[in-house]
């Protein structure tokens, strides 16, 4: 086994490679220019190959340096995330959950008080974005129904939470022309329309299409009378109950489920297991 160089040399290398300058790296690391230069020289001697070459008044990575920088950058990122989780766990039982903004706004956050009443010692941190750009860095759990873009290993770890039911929704005044209306599609899960048509045997012969990056915006657009949106039943529940939206063709169960995906291979923590159990119970609803 080859001995690793001192961690300080790797820090100096990563900062210099990222900034392209020993001076900027020294400022970032709060070291002198000479100290960083010595660390780089020590690392290159240890490796037995040059990692930088002159580029005007600065430095640029050699081919070997560029390849090693990718490794070092990923390793430091993983260390930082792991240490952040360690510190957070030491302060209080915390759970970092990644989910779509629509799911957070329309279902999860309005019910968080229920979870905190049951488990007041656990604190949930949310990462929210659009379905196609889910930020999972540092997350313990991902909550989603469409896992097509995730790895096979992540899909195998997925824990079913509840079935999902999709259907076209529109403003009541729009319902009579829904079959030939404007289709409102999600930028990142537009395949949901194709799935719904195959499962329902119906087709919306659209006269146009509007696209939005969040299901929440699709539902709002439908409520405003702009067209027909495809929504999961829970996400449009409030508008359906209030009569703001109607579902002219009802809802169809998709052959997938809303799932919680542990983002690493470790067994679920007590906080994560408590959250999964609570979600399973809270997601139950009458047909």
From TrEMBL:
GO molecular function: DNA-binding transcription factor activity; sequence-specific DNA binding
Origin superkingdom: Bacteria
Pfam families cross-referenced by the UniProt entry: HTH_1, LysR_substrate
Keywords: DNA-binding, Transcription, Transcription regulation
HTH lysR-type domain segment(s): 5-62
InterPro entries given in the database record: LysR-type_TF_proteobact-type, LysR_HTH_N, LysR_subst-bd, WH-like_DNA-bd_sf, WH_DNA-bd_sf
GO biological process terms held by the UniProt record: DNA-templated transcription
Protein family according to the UniProt entry: Belongs to the LysR transcriptional regulatory family.
Name of the protein this chain belongs to: LysR family transcriptional regulator
Source species: Bordetella ansorpii
Lineage of the organism: Bacteria, Pseudomonadati, Pseudomonadota, Betaproteobacteria, Burkholderiales
